[in-house]
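[Discussion] Sanity-checking designs against the backbone

I'm trying to build intuition for which residues belong where. Below is a C-alpha cell string of 270 positions. I'd appreciate it if someone posts a full sequence so I can compare it with mine line by line.
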C-alpha cells in the first residue's frame, strides 16, 4: 500500500470517527478529547525526552485530567467544581515540589517542559468543555464546524501549495509551506464558512467568515509551532498511532492552537 493511499484511508477513518464522537453525545465528545489529550501529552513528553529533559509524566497527566474535569464541572457538576479546582491547583504545586527530588541537574528544564505540555496540550483540550457546554447544554456545532474549517484550510493549503507554491512562508521551520498555500487555506476556509453558515446558525454569516479567518491563521501558526518543536527534537512525527499521518499531535497541531481562539471569539460574540 502506497503512503498516499495509507494517508487517505487513515484520514477518512479519522474524519468519520471525529465527526461521530463530536456529534453523537456529550459522553463521546468528552471521551474523544480526554483520550486525545492523554495521548498527546505522552507524545509531547517523548519529544521532550529526546532533548534530554525529564518531565514528570505522571503528575502532569494527573494535573491535566483534573484541569479537564474541573472545567467540565463548571457547567455540568457545579457542586464539585470548587473541589476539583482545588485538586488541580494542588497537583500543579506538587509538580514543583517533585522537582526537589530529581537526581539529575536539569530540574529547571525538566519542570519547564512538564508545564509546557500542560499549557500546550492540556489547556486547549480542556477548553472544549467551556466551548461546547454553554449553561449546561451540549452544543457541538461550533467545535465540529471548527474541525471542518481546519480540514478545509489544510486541504486548500496542500493542493494550492503543491500546484502554485513558490514563495516560502517560513522555510527554516517548514520548507514546504508557501504563501500561495496560505492563500489557498484562506480561500477554502472562507468558502467553507459560507456553506456552514447555512446549516449552523449559532453565528451569522459575517461572524462565521470572521471566525474562518481566525481559524485559518491559527491553524497555520499551530502547524508551524509543532513543526518547530519537532525540528528541535530532530524527529519527523510525534508518533505512529495514525498510519501515514504520525501521532495525535501531528493531527491535532492546528486544532490545539485554534481551540483557545475559538473560546475567545465565543466569549466576545455570544
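Best answer:
Here's mine. Compare freely.
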Amino acid at each position: 500500500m502506497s503512503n498516499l493511499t495509507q494517508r487517505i484511508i487513515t484520514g477518512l477513518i479519522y474524519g468519520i470517527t471525529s465527526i461521530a464522537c463530536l456529534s453523537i453525545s456529550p459522553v463521546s465528545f468528552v471521551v474523544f478529547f480526554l483520550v486525545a489529550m492523554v495521548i498527546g501529552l505522552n507524545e509531547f513528553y517523548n519529544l521532550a525526552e529526546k532533548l534530554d529533559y525529564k518531565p514528570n509524566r505522571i503528575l502532569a497527566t494527573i494535573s491535566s485530567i483534573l484541569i479537564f474535569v474541573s472545567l467540565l464541572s463548571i457547567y455540568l457538576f457545579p457542586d464539585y467544581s470548587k473541589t476539583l479546582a482545588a485538586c488541580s491547583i494542588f497537583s500543579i504545586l506538587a509538580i514543583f515540589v517533585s522537582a526537589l527530588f530529581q537526581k539529575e541537574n536539569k530540574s529547571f528544564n525538566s519542570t519547564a517542559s512538564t508545564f509546557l505540555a500542560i499549557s500546550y496540550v492540556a489547556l486547549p483540550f480542556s477548553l472544549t468543555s467551556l466551548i461546547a457546554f454553554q449553561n449546561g447544554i451540549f452544543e457541538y456545532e461550533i467545535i465540529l464546524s471548527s474541525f471542518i474549517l481546519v480540514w478545509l484550510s489544510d486541504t486548500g493549503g496542500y493542493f494550492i501549495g503543491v500546484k502554485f507554491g513558490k514563495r516560502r512562508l517560513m522555510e527554516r521551520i517548514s520548507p514546504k509551506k508557501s504563501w500561495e498555500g496560505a492563500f489557498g487555506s484562506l480561500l477554502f476556509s472562507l468558502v467553507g464558512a459560507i456553506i456552514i453558515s447555512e446549516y449552523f446558525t449559532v453565528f451569522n454569516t459575517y461572524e462565521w467568515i470572521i471566525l474562518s479567518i481566525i481559524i485559518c491563521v491559527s491553524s497555520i501558526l499551530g502547524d508551524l509551532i509543532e513543526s518547530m518543536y519537532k525540528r528541535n527534537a530532530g524527529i519527523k512525527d510525534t508518533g505512529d498511532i495514525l498510519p501515514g499521518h504520525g501521532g495525535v499531535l501531528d493531527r491535532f497541531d492546528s486544532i490545539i492552537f485554534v481551540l483557545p481562539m475559538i473560546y475567545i471569539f465565543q466569549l466576545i460574540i455570544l
